[in-house]
Design goal:
The complex is a heterotrimer.
Chain A lengths: L1 E10 L2 E11 L4 E5 L6 H9 L6 E6 L2 E2 L10 E4 L11 H11 L4 H14 L15 H14 L4 E5 L7 H16 L4 E6 L2 H7 L2 E6 L2 E7 H6 L4 H6 L6 E8 L2 E5 L5 E4 L13 E6 L4 E2 L8 E12 L3 E8 L2 E8 L9 E6 L5 E4 L9
Parallel strand pairs in A: 3-8, 3-9, 6-7, 7-8
Antiparallel strand pairs in A: 1-2, 1-4, 4-5, 9-10, 11-12, 11-14, 12-13, 14-20, 15-19, 16-17, 16-19, 17-18
Helix pairs in contact in A: 2-3, 2-4, 3-4
Chain B lengths: L3 E8 L21 E8 L4 E5 L6 H9 L6 E6 L2 E2 L5 H4 L1 E4 L11 H11 L4 H15 L14 H13 L6 E5 L7 H18 L3 E5 L2 H7 L2 E6 L2 E6 L1 H6 L4 H6 L6 E4 L1 E3 L2 E4 L2 E4 L2 E2 L1 H13 L5 E5 L4 E4 L8 E8 L3 E8 L2 E8 L9 E4 L5 E4 L2 E3 L2 E2 L1
Parallel strand pairs in B: 3-8, 3-9, 6-7, 7-8
Antiparallel strand pairs in B: 1-2, 1-4, 4-5, 9-10, 11-16, 12-13, 13-14, 15-24, 16-22, 17-21, 18-19, 19-20, 22-23
Chain C lengths: L6 H28 L1 E3 L5 E3 L3 H8 L1 H31 L5 H15 L2 H11 L6 H8 L10 H29 L3 H9 L4 H29 L3 H6 L11 H11 L3 H32 L5
Antiparallel strand pairs in C: 1-2
The chains are: A alpha+beta, B alpha+beta, C mainly alpha.
Chain lengths: ~350, ~375, ~290
């Protein structure tokens, strides 16, 4: 297990990592999710030992590894840019960490061939990286990381420079590739969809601190903080402001009026604030009323995008940009008005002051 | 805005480019772009979609004039522009990596293309203000471009492409690659709005099918230098002309199953699937071909969105679940039916039965012979 | 917490020793001489800053300083723009690249006194190509007698010798500019000058700074080449600070004043370089933050 305890790091006066504590288990995929500059790469560098934290401790299997230089840690790292030794053949590239460790020739050969066949690189072992396609080059980098049988494997957006379809392919292979080794796997990405497809546990990073850490799907369905919900949304989360008056939540409706949000049996929260933020995911908005409790929005359509089987309808609501994801082709010309409905129980409600979710 | 026409365009990298469009092909060099003839209407939004190396960027550079084709002609509104440089063709192009003039401010960056064309100062200022507002960067007009984030720099690159109102076409070469998902959303929508508002001819190159389908009126799918299919997003989704298109579009892509065809039904292993149309001609071709020794590959294509899993069904259609991916708005179930891999999309809230059986919507089935779509006859 | 690898110090110690022997100890010796005077017979007594004051007040020193500054200024004025122009003209791809790089490197490989000798012979009216050619064209060219001719010869020699350095540095900066920038500029309709001003110049600013610093230092300290060609003449019209210094130390054996002058010389260079560097990096930061 890799543990970070209250790790902080400043660079040039700016706080890059803000009091981060995480416990990452072996054998499962630990995902760092967040936009660029949210601290993913900084955190990975700290985990690898390339940088040292200004405060806090990093422990591996209970032992502090602060001050241990990266060459002495059993770490493998794969980067976004396909990093391979350009003058060495694919075979030599994969073998390089084993040669540094001075393993026997037969052992090296065995391991390299094993890993190469797992990653479908066997026919290319004698070629140079420059002769391979992007996807193949990244596989070589992955092979080099795998062959080391490191205890800690760090993958920093390894698929970001690949084609969409190639990314999907490699993504489905990744978890099984590293599964046997039993190492601590850390994977950084900016795409929520990728995190969901990979599963495992996710840490939502926001401006250098961890908004939430836990099983990926759990965070997606029940975010505890507004920042976690925002980070973990693609398309972006739809938000509106709510007020609490005499025990009922009220939100904007058409023409400046307000409507009540009926939350059924849920108990009202015990909080002193009166301002709240509602978040609802685009695919929970529908064009037809499904139940009496649904709340309703009427809005002027900004633009509609169609992606084959689904339509994205963009409109403005409560002075924010909203998007609805509905099934099928929806012909909604710019300027026309449409009504949307949603089940209030599917919405997240956050306290506007401390951003905590009211219902878990 | 202009009509863009390609006549017999083909391109080989490295074949001596003496005069554009008039070289005899070199047998040994592979074609980056195979022979194509296309006509793109004035004011349309087009996407060139395909994997790396399919020739889409080559095609874009031929249209913009940054590359001279080794064969063929490019015409704008009937005028041969093949020999003209990019400036002379009056197009704008936005690249994958942000290109900004570091020493100039945001506003000066946007004004740059207009100043080079010696437009009157007031006109330039008005236009720059408009584009700044569009990009949401009015408050940073005076900031030096050097100190901006990569996202903002790419916005400026986009802005510079949009600032000229008289362009024949605006070309985009994977412009959103370096941008974060959230901002990618905003920018894509902005581009779509701009297109609907100003009706420029826009050509957008990408390998991301969501970007292509949401942006374009017509998508041109390319593979290994050739155009595989041109159609609206809906056409490409419902009736892919080639299994490659079917698999490339959609996440996950279309399921392609090996079957034996018998007129109005297909045999998948032990299962018999009724087809909505009759494929007699295909069958007789197949039989005829079989007798002459040719082997035809017949496949059935259906999208995961058009399949479902039911708690009961015929034994032959029993599904063995291999993997489940919950992506929030739906669940992707990876299963095996009759030994072949099939992906099914199950909507949020709909459960997955204990022992599931595959159910398909026959109208959504597409029949492919040697990977090409076959049209059937009504029954 | 640092994870310094202390083994590094062991590797560096031989070099440190060498530097100490060849540079620091002699420097200390010079400092020693600069504050003492002797009556001969190796008897020295302390005179404090007397030598420094004498030098700083001497007309001879100031004249030499002015000449050196003028030389450096002219040389920079010619070499920097010329170097940039040649770097811009050099091809970036294909076989021309290797050919040009070799041609550019050649003048830098010649030992400096050989450079001086080449030009000394080259400029001679009787046997030198340049000298003979010019005089047969009717020009009255004689670098040993005419001050203007001497200066022109020295400057042309220095330009011939060192412009390549500027060229190579700028070329390396230019070559690293991605093609996309040029493509975008073409599409924006930018003129050749705009491309230079807004794309190329900003990108090579850093290497240009290094080139200017190096050229200033070298030209300010120049000794071998002018010494071989003109020996400081005619008269003392090309007696730069370094030549003056050597005349004082070795010719006149005025060790005290010579040592003081060396130190002043050293400090001037240090000061100018520091000011120059600070101004340029501040300007850089004002331009817009991180680099």
């Amino acid at each position: 297990m890799l543990e970070l305890r209250n790790v902080s790091r400043r660079v040039d006066g700016e706080l890059h990592i803000d009091d981060v504590s995480l416990q990452l288990q072996r054998g499962e995929l630990n995902i760092l999710l967040g936009p660029t500059l949210s601290g993913k790469t900084s955190l990975m560098r700290l985990m690898a030992g390339l940088d040292q934290p200004d405060s806090g401790d990093i422990l591996f299997d209970g032992n502090s590894v602060l001050g241990v230089p990266v060459q002495q840690r059993n770490v493998a790292m794969v980067y976004q840019q396909f990093i391979n030794y350009p003058t060495l053949s694919v075979y030599e590239n994969i073998a390089s960490p084993l040669r540094v460790a001075r393993l026997a020739k037969e052992e090296i050969e065995k391991r390299v061939n094993e890993v190469a066949s797992l990653l479908q690189l066997t026919p290319m072992l004698q070629r140079k990286p420059s002769e391979l396609s992007g996807g193949q080059q990244q596989r070589v980098a992955l092979a080099r990381a795998m062959v080391k049988r490191a205890e800690l494997v760090l993958l920093d957006e390894p698929l970001a420079n690949l084609d969409y379809k190639l990314r999907e392919e490699l993504r489905s292979e990744l978890p099984s590739l590293f599964a046997e080794q039993g190492a601590v796997l850390v994977y950084a990405t900016t795409e929520p969809m990728e995190a969901l497809a990979l599963g495992g546990s996710t840490a939502c990073l926001h401006e250098g601190w961890v908004a939430q850490f836990g099983p990926t799907l759990g965070i997606f369905k029940r975010p505890k903080l507004l920042q976690a919900a925002k980070v973990f949304s693609d398309p972006p989360l739809n938000m509106a402001s709510l007020t609490l008056e005499s025990g009922t939540f009220s939100m904007p409706a058409a023409n400046g009026t307000r409507q009540n949000l009926s939350l059924g049996d849920k108990n009202l929260p015990e909080s002193t604030s009166s301002e709240f933020v509602m978040g609802i995911r685009p695919h929970h908005l529908t064009l037809e009323r499904c139940s009496e409790n649904d709340f309703e929005l009427e809005a002027r359509i900004d633009v509609t995008e169609f992606s084959g089987s689904e339509s994205f309808i963009h409109f403005e609501f409560d002075q924010q940009a909203w998007v609805a994801l509905v099934h099928g082709v929806v012909d909604a010309p710019i300027g026309s008005t449409l009504k949307f409905f949603a089940d209030p129980n599917k919405a997240f409600i956050f306290d506007a002051a401390n951003h905590n979710s009211l219902y878990q | 805005m202009a009509n863009i026409e390609l006549q017999n365009i083909a391109h080989q990298y490295g074949s001596g480019q003496n005069s554009p469009g008039q070289n005899s092909p070199d047998e040994n060099i592979p074609y980056a772009l195979k022979n194509m003839n296309e006509l793109w209407q004035d004011g349309g939004a087009y996407a060139l979609l395909g994997p790396s190396g399919c020739g889409k960027t080559t095609l874009l550079n031929i249209i913009s004039g940054l590359l001279q084709p080794s064969e063929g002609r490019v015409l704008f509104d009937g005028l041969d522009v093949t020999g003209l440089s990019p400036e002379q063709r009056n197009i704008a192009q936005v690249f994958q990596f942000p290109v900004v003039y570091d020493t100039l401010t945001v506003a000066q960056n946007l004004a740059f293309p207009l100043r080079n064309r010696k437009l009157p100062k007031q006109q330039i200022e008005a236009r720059v203000a408009e584009v700044l507002k569009l990009l949401g960067m009015t408050d940073r007009a005076g900031q030096r471009a050097h100190s901006l984030s990569a996202d903002d720099k790419q916005k400026i690159s986009l802005g510079r492409g949009l600032v000229r109102t008289d362009v024949n076409a605006i070309l985009f070469d994977e412009p959103l690659t370096v941008i974060d998902p959230h901002l990618k959303w905003q920018l894509r929508t902005e581009l779509k709005k701009i297109h609907q508002q100003f009706q420029h001819t826009m050509i957008y190159v990408t390998h991301d099918q969501t970007e292509a389908l949401t942006f374009a009126d017509k998508v041109i799918v390319m593979y290994e230098g050739a155009v595989v299919q041109i159609g609206t997003p809906q056409e490409l989704f419902e009736h892919p002309a080639h299994t490659f298109v079917g698999k490339f579009i959609g996440s996950p892509g279309m399921n392609v199953m090996q079957v034996d065809l018998h007129g109005t039904s297909a045999r998948l292993g032990d299962a018999e699937i009724q087809l909505p149309k009759s494929y007699e001609s295909a069958v007789s071709e197949e039989e005829g071909a079989a007798s002459s020794g040719f082997k035809q590959k017949v496949e059935l294509g259906i999208r995961p969105e058009h399949l479902s899993l039911l708690p009961t069904g015929p034994d032959e259609l029993r599904a063995d679940i291999v993997g489940i991916e919950d992506v929030g708005k739906h669940i992707v179930v990876r299963a095996k039916v009759q030994g072949q891999g099939i992906d099914v999309i199950v909507k949020e809230g709909v459960g997955i039965p204990e022992s599931p059986y595959l159910s398909l919507t026959p109208e959504k089935l597409n029949v492919y012979q040697n990977s090409y779509l076959v049209q059937g006859q009504p029954r | 917490m640092k994870t310094q690898n202390n083994k590094a110090w062991f590797f560096v110690s031989p070099v440190l020793l060498l530097v100490a022997l060849s540079a620091i100890i002699p420097l200390m010796t010079v400092v020693n001489y600069s504050v003492q005077d002797s009556f001969g017979n190796n008897e020295f007594f302390w005179v404090g800053t007397e030598w420094f004051q004498e030098i700083l007040n001497s007309e001879r020193f100031h004249n030499a300083l002015q000449r050196t500054l003028l030389f450096s200024g002219l040389v920079l004025l010619i070499e920097i723009p010329l170097g940039i122009a040649i770097a811009l003209a050099m091809p970036k791809r294909g076989i021309g690249v290797s050919v040009c790089l070799v041609l550019m490197a050649l003048p830098l490989l010649i030992p400096w006194n050989v450079v001086g000798t080449i030009w000394q012979v080259f400029g001679r009216v009787d046997i030198g190509l340049l000298g003979y050619g010019l005089s047969s064209l009717g020009f009255d060219y004689n670098y040993t007698q005419d001050i203007f001719d001497a200066w022109v010869t020295l400057i042309v020699m220095d330009v011939w010798h060192w412009t390549s350095l500027v060229v190579l540095l700028c070329y390396s900066g230019l070559v690293s500019i991605p093609e996309v920038y040029y493509q975008a500029a073409r599409i924006d309709g930018a003129s050749r000058w705009s491309v230079f001003r807004f794309i190329q110049l900003p990108k090579i600013k850093r290497v240009l700074l290094i080139a200017v610093l190096l050229r200033f230092m070298d030209s300010f300290m120049i000794y071998t080449e002018p010494f071989v060609v003109t020996g400081g003449g005619p008269g003392n019209s090309t007696t730069f600070l370094s030549i003056d210094l050597v005349q004082m130390a070795v010719g006149q054996f005025d060790l005290g004043p010579a040592a003081a002058m060396s130190l002043i010389y050293f400090l001037i260079i240090l000061l100018v370089c520091w000011v120059f560097y600070t101004v340029m990096t501040n300007y850089d930061q004002q331009q817009g933050g991180q680099n």
